[in-house]
Design brief:
This protein is mainly α. The chain is built from 10 helices and 2 strands, in the order ααααααββαααα. The protein has one domain. Helices cover 72% and strands 3% of the residues.
C-alpha cells in the first residue's frame, strides 16, 4: 500500500474526528475549533502573501482576525451585547494608523493583503460560528455539523466521480484536474447526504428542502472556493499552502472550499429562516 495514502488516511481520520467531536460536544469546544482554524489559516495566508515582511506587518492581520473572532463569538453566546459589532470600526482604524509607523514605502499593498485575509478567512468563519446560533441564543450543532458533512461529501464525490468519469475540464487554466463530471458526482452524493442529514441524523434546524438547496450551494460555491485558492497558489508558484497536515498540505488547503461556501449558505439561511 502506498505510504502517502496511509499517511493521508491517518491524518484525515484524526482531522475529521477532531472536527466532529469539537462541533458536537459544546459551544465552547466549537468556538475553540473555529478559533484554531481561523488562526492557522490566517497564519498560512500571511506567510504566503507577505513572506518578506517584518513580524508586525505579517502578524497584525492574525492579531486583528483573532480579536474579531473572539468578539463575535462572545456576542453570539450572549456574553457581549450587540453593540459590540461596532468595534469592527476601531479595529480597522487601528490597522490604518499602524501604517503611519511602518516606513516600508509599500504600506498600502501590505494593508490590502491584511484586509483581504480578514474578509477571505475570518468573516466566513464568523458566519459559520453564527450558524450554530441561527435560530436561538442557545448553541445547536446541527447546521455547522451538517455543513461540514456536506463540504466533505462534495469533495469526496467530486474526487471519485472525477477519477472515474472525468473528461470535461471545468477550469483547466487554474485547476487542470477539476472536471464537470466530478462536480456532478459531488452534487449527487451531496444531495443524498443532505436527505440523510435531515431524515436520519435528525438535524432539523431547517427543512429537508433547505438541506437539499444548501448541499447544492456547498457544491457550487465550494468549487469556486477551491478554484480561488488554486489561483492564489498559481500566482505564488506553490503547490500547498503549508505542511502542518502530513499528506494533505496546509490547513488553508483543507478549508479552501469553506470560505466561499459559508457566505452563500449563511445568506440563504438569513433570508429564508
Amino acid at each position: 500500500m502506498n505510504s502517502n495514502f496511509v499517511q493521508r488516511s491517518i491524518t484525515g481520520s484524526i482531522f475529521v474526528s477532531a472536527v466532529i467531536a469539537a462541533t458536537m460536544f459544546s459551544e465552547f469546544s466549537f468556538f475553540i475549533l473555529l478559533f484554531v482554524i481561523n488562526f492557522l489559516c490566517l497564519l498560512e495566508f500571511y506567510e504566503l502573501v507577505l513572506p518578506d515582511k517584518r513580524w508586525l506587518e505579517k502578524y497584525l492581520g492574525i492579531i486583528c482576525g483573532s480579536v474579531i473572532f473572539i468578539m463575535f463569538a462572545m456576542i453570539f453566546s450572549a456574553d457581549l451585547s450587540l453593540a459590540w459589532y461596532y468595534n469592527l470600526i476601531p479595529i480597522f482604524m487601528f490597522m490604518f494608523i499602524i501604517k503611519l509607523f511602518e516606513r516600508t514605502h509599500n504600506e498600502f499593498s501590505t494593508l490590502a493583503f491584511q484586509i483581504l485575509g480578514l474578509l477571505y478567512i475570518t468573516m466566513p468563519i464568523v458566519m459559520l460560528a453564527k450558524m450554530g446560533f441561527l435560530n436561538s441564543l442557545s448553541y445547536s450543532p446541527g447546521l455547522p455539523m451538517g455543513f461540514f458533512l456536506l463540504l466533505w461529501t462534495s469533495d469526496t464525490g467530486a474526487y471519485l466521480a472525477g477519477r472515474s468519469f472525468g473528461k470535461t475540464k471545468l477550469f483547466e487554466r487554474i485547476s487542470p484536474k477539476k472536471t464537470l463530471e466530478g462536480s456532478i458526482g459531488g452534487a449527487i452524493l451531496s444531495l443524498i447526504v443532505a436527505y440523510g442529514i435531515s431524515n436520519l441524523l435528525g438535524f432539523d434546524d431547517v427543512t429537508t428542502f433547505d438541506w437539499m438547496l444548501i448541499s447544492l450551494l456547498v457544491v457550487i460555491f465550494g468549487t469556486f472556493g477551491d478554484l480561488f485558492e488554486s489561483l492564489l497558489k498559481r500566482n505564488l508558484h506553490i503547490k500547498d499552502s503549508g505542511t502542518i497536515l502530513p499528506g494533505h498540505g496546509g490547513v488553508l488547503d483543507r478549508f479552501d472550499g469553506l470560505f466561499l461556501a459559508i457566505p452563500a449558505v449563511f445568506f440563504y439561511l438569513l433570508f429564508t429562516n
